[in-house]
Each structure stands twice: as structure tokens, then as C-alpha cells.
Specification:
Elements (H helix, E strand, L loop, with lengths): L3 H12 L24 H14 L3 E5 L4 H12 L3 E4 L15 E4 L6 H5 L3 E4 L3 E3 L4 E4 L16 E7 L3 E2 L2 H4 L10 E3 L4 E3 L5 E3 L6 E7 L1
Parallel strand pairs: 1-12, 2-3, 2-4, 4-7, 5-8, 7-12
Antiparallel strand pairs: 5-6, 6-9, 10-11
Length: about 210
């Protein structure tokens, strides 16, 4: 017995049976790929503003200032442990003292991550118009679980990783990779719209924006 879906599709095929292929209208994709100025400083400003709207904490600095900012954020959060990808740039932790570092790998289980205060990673790219940071388990990011279990996530974003819009971002991403799209700390609301943070991921997101 045919389902309703199959019946509808059959009627569409019948209705289009005598329409020559040449008459099929081409798909139009003449929409604007971005609505922001394409200069880098403007995109960084918009990204920082939108991340802040989503209750992320944005810290702008120069490349040389990254180690000091990371050390300060760990100290302010009271972190005694931090989980990092195996290929994390070593200078990012150069100013960190008194914090146990757990390197991502098979030995870093979910149970261990549950007792880890902070995750420190890079990202694949960031989208200015939506205030979104995208991770895809690429360089300086580690496994997806690394940033979902600890209560605190520090994410370092380089200026050249920032794109203006979603249409600019999608061609740069590999759809076969495990992606995590982050706009602020994890949050959910119940039926009465009471916001609760930290249910599905980090309760606090610090973005170190270089540039």
C-alpha cells in the first residue's frame, strides 16, 4: 500500500512528465553571500559583539599576549586542571603555573573529563554575523568530547579564521568531520523560559580573539 508521501510524489512526476528538461528553470543563487564589510577589523568587532550578546566572554589581544590571557582566565576560574589537544601550540601554556595539564587521547576518558575544570582549544573558524565559533576536531582542537564535558571552555580564535557569514563559512568546512557550532555557553530553557546554562556543554565560554 502506498504511503501518502509516495502518492504525492507520484502525482508530481505525472504532472511534470511532459515538461522538457530544457524548460526547467535554473536555480538562482544571486543572494548576498555576506552583509558585512569585508575588512578584517569590522568583522572582528561584529564577532566580538555577537559573542557577547550570547553571554560569551571575549578577550582581545595580540599574538604575544595569548599566554598571559590564558593564564589569567584559568586563575580567575579557579582551575586546577585543564584538558588540551595533543597538538596545542606549546606557547599557549607558557605562562600557566599550578595547573595540571591533561592531553587529549584514549586515556582521557569521559570520567576524567568530568573532573577537569577547563578545556583549552583552538577552532576551525568563526562566523562574525552569527557570533559562532566552529570546531571540527582539526588542528589544536582535539576530540569533540573535549569541549562538551568540562564546565569551562577557553577557545582561541585567530583573526584570519574569522569569516563574515554562513555562506562564506560552509565552503571552508568538511561536512564529513565532527563539527561543534558554539554561540555562547551551553544553555537551554524550560517551558516557562527559565534559562539554565551548562546542561549540554560548558557553563562558561571564554573566547580569546587575536587581532
Amino acid at each position: 500500500m502506498n504511503t501518502s508521501r509516495e502518492s504525492v510524489l507520484a502525482r508530481i512526476r505525472t504532472a511534470l512528465a511532459d515538461v522538457p528538461t530544457a524548460e526547467e528553470p535554473p536555480l538562482r543563487r544571486d543572494y548576498l553571500p555576506a552583509h558585512l564589510p569585508q575588512d578584517r577589523p569590522a568583522m572582528l568587532d561584529v564577532l566580538a559583539e555577537h559573542l557577547a550578546d550570547y553571554r560569551a566572554h571575549v578577550h582581545r589581544c595580540t599574538p604575544a599576549g595569548v599566554p598571559a590571557v590564558i593564564a589569567r582566565l584559568l586563575r580567575e576560574h579557579g582551575s586546577t586542571s585543564v584538558a588540551v589537544p595533543a597538538d596545542l601550540p606549546p606557547d599557549w601554556l607558557a605562562a600557566v603555573t599550578g595547573v595540571a595539564v591533561a592531553t587529549d587521547g584514549p586515556a582521557l576518558t569521559t570520567s576524567r573529563l568530568e573532573t577537569t575544570d577547563t578545556a583549552l582549544t583552538g577552532c576551525a573558524l568563526a562566523i562574525a554575523e552569527t557570533g559562532t565559533v566552529v570546531l571540527d576536531a582539526g588542528p589544536a582542537q582535539g576530540r569533540r568530547i573535549l569541549t562538551l564535558v568540562p564546565d569551562h571552555h577557553i577557545c582561541v580564535v585567530h583573526a584570519d579564521q574569522v569569516v563574515a557569514s554562513l555562506p562564506r563559512a560552509l565552503p571552508l568546512l568538511d561536512p564529513t568531520r565532527p563539527q561543534t557550532w558554539i554561540s555562547g555557553p551551553s544553555a537551554t530553557s524550560d517551558i516557562e523560559l527559565d534559562r539554565v546554562e551548562g546542561v549540554h556543554g560548558p557553563r562558561r565560554l571564554d573566547v580569546v580573539l587575536i587581532g
